[in-house]
Structures are given as structure tokens and as C-alpha cells.
Amino acid sequence: MKFILVVCCLVAAVVARPSDKYTDKYDNLDIQEILENKRLLEAYVNCILDKGKCTAEGKELKEHLQEAIETGCEKCTEAQEKGAYKAIEYLIKNELDIWHKLTDRFDPSGKWRKKYEDRAKANGVVIPEEYMKLLVILMLLAVATLALAEESKYTDRYDNVNIDEILNNRRLLVAYVKCILETGRCTAEGKELKKHIKDGMQTACSKCTQWQRQGARKVVKHIRENEPEYWQQMLTKYDPNGEFKSIYEPFLESDD
């Protein structure tokens, strides 16, 4: 008799124990349809935030949402768990403002929000605010790259100098050559040329603007053909051992 009483008590306890899962009454809801319908989505959100009327399934969701967030949907059915993560990832990716409103209400400390966002990111979801941070970083890198590129080029301040006029006026040409050889006075553009001529020879004019590259070839060709002694003096000063000839000669012969 005692045994029967014990069994009856155990049966009663099992029957009386509350279900460890939420009701599956609404598991057939089309989550995707709700998420992609702004009007429907906002209606559910307003219900959850106590800002609007609730449908039966809305009430059920609101009743268990806090617990589900804090337990990782522990009592959800399989369909509910899949739907919950689908909804979370959709909101993070497409409706970040709604996601923030929900987490501000149900997770003000941000403890669970971070876990869900980390999971979303692990699944390839790019969070818009993270995307914006990435864009800012990329923009800063682009600006830095452009700045470095500008710094790595010689100034184009004198790119409007009329080279043909100088080459056709021997007095002007010789004045520039003497500046470069440090045997005469320099104009501002002459100083700029002298400052970079050795580097230009050693790097095949890699820091030159396109105008400067074309101008350098034209000037050297003219000096070689018409002022060979000055050309030799320039080589003696800036490349006495012919160390960089294999660098600047191919550049002078090319026509890029």
C-alpha cells in the first residue's frame, strides 16, 4: 500500500510539474513574413514595448521574452529557437534601431546583447554600426595613403615651367645647369631641381609627376646632344662611378 502511495505521489508530481518548454501553439507563424513586413514588425515591437495592442501570440512572446533572453532561449522549442535567432540577426542587420530599443528595455546592462551580437557576427552578419566603424577606418587609411602618396611625390609647383623655352635659350639653359653643378646661382625652381636630381637618377624618377618624367627625358636628350660636356659634368657630380646608370638609362629610353 505504501508503495502504491509513493508511485501515486510521483505521478502527481510529474503531472503537476510545469512544462519546461514554452507552448508550441504559435510555432507555425511565418517569422520571415513578419520581419519583412515593416507594418507587422512594428506592431509586434510596439506590443512588446507596451506601446501598442497585442495579438495572442504577441502577448505570449512578451510574457516570456525577458526569460528567453537571459537563458539563451533554454525553454524554446526547436522552431522557436531557430525563429528567435533568425529574428535577432535580421534586426541587428536591418533594423538596428529596433534592436537597440528592445535591448535597452530587456537588457539595459548590455550583457546579453553582446552575446547575441557576437553570435550574429560569427554567422557573418555585419552590424551596421560596426560597418560604419570599418568605413571610418578605411576612409582614414585611404586619406593616410593619399597623404603618403602626395609626400612621396616631388612638388608639382613648377610643372608649368616652359621647358621648350629654356632649351631653346642657351643662356637660360646654362644658368640652370650651373645651378645644378653648384657653380652658379639658382632660381627657386632650380633649387627644387637640384634638391631631387640625385634621388631622381637613383630611383628612375619614381617620385616624379608625369609631367616631370616627360620633361626630364626631353631635357637630358637635349643636353646629351647639344651640351655633352655639361652632361658629363653632371654625371661626374651625381653618379661618378656609373653606379646608377642601369637605373636611369632604361627610364630615359622609355616613353611611359
Overall description:
It is a single chain. With 256 residues, this protein is an all-alpha fold. It folds into 2 domains: 27-125, Antennal chemosensory protein a6, CATH 1.10.2080.10; 163-253, Antennal chemosensory protein a6 (Orthogonal Bundle), CATH 1.10.2080. The protein is 70% helix and 0% strand. It is built from 14 helices and no strands. The protein has helices spanning 2-16, 31-35, 38-48, 56-71, 78-94, 96-106, 111-122, 128-151, 163-167, 170-180, 188-202, 210-226, 228-238, 245-253. The protein is rod-shaped. The relative contact order is 0.06.
What does the largest sheet look like? none
Count of alpha and pi helical runs: 14
Mean pLDDT: 79
Number of E-type strands: 0
Are there runs of 5+ residues with pLDDT below 50, and where?
1-18, 131-140, 142-150
Number of domains: 2
- Give the overall shape: rod-shaped
The value of Rg in angstroms is 39 Å
Q: Briefly note the structural class of the backbone.
A: mainly alpha
Let me know the CATH homologous superfamily of the largest domain: Insect odorant-binding protein A10/Ejaculatory bulb-specific protein 3
Q: What's the helical proportion of residues?
A: 55-70%
CATH topology of the largest domain: Antennal chemosensory protein a6
N→C terminal distance: 106 Å
Q: Determine and state the CATH class of the largest domain.
A: Mainly Alpha
Please write the string of helix (H) and strand (E) elements. HHHHHHHHHHHHHH
The portion of residues forming beta strands comes to under 5%
Under the CATH scheme, which architecture of the largest domain would be assigned? Orthogonal Bundle
